[in-house]
Amino acid sequence: AMQIMSIVNAQRSGNAEFSFMGTTIPCSRDTGIFITMNPGYAGRTELPDNLKALMRPVAMMAPDLTLIAEVMLAAEGFSEARSLAKKTITLYTLMQQQLSKQDHYDYGLRNLKAVLNMA
User: Fold this and answer.
1) Would you say 63 and 38 are in contact if contact means Cβ atoms under 8 Å apart?
2) What percent of the chain is modeled with pLDDT above 90?
3) What mean pLDDT is predicted for residues 15-37?
4) If we measure between CA atoms, which residue out of 63, 54, 73 comes closest to residue 9?
5) Do 75 and 117 contact (CB within 8 A), yes or no?
6) Which residues touch 60 (CB under 8 Å, ≥6 apart)?
7) Helices (H), the chain
8) 10 Å Cβ neighbour count for 47?
9) CA-angle at 63, arms to 61 and 66, nearest 5°
10) Of 2, 3, 4, whose CA–CA distance to 34 is shortest?
């Protein structure tokens, strides 16, 4: 958090250079600091409070898996990409709802993309 705070303070003050961990480096006003986290995911932890205080939350929404699947299939040359995408996402949704809730089952976007890349 101290490193982030030194960058933020340098940007706010408009300095051309600042000291970062004992080294003087240039400061660009075009620089942004972003932290993406998925704390509900297995093995992930919450952001520490002192770092959370320096960041602004941004709302995210779930991606449209059908549209992503359609674009990926169309890019690979499937002529019925829309129909195949709907069927694929319906299958994924049914598996997610009806199969047991074990940790090794993963129906996220990364897994969907891996399956579609094999098509």
Assistant:
1) no
2) 28
3) 83
4) 54
5) no
6) none
7) 2-13, 49-52, 65-75, 81-98, 109-118
8) 16
9) 145
10) 4
Task: Copy the structure tokens of residue 108.
Answer: 């996220």
Phi-psi region of 87 (alpha: psi -120 to 50; beta: other; left: phi over 0): alpha
Q: What is the pLDDT of residue 72?
A: 94
Query: What dihedral angle (degrees, nearest 10) is formed by the CA atoms of 54, 32, 12, 4?
Result: 40
Residue 38 one-letter amino acid = N
pTM (2 d.p.): 0.57
Task: Give the N- to C-terminal CA distance of the chain in Å, as an integer.
Answer: 44
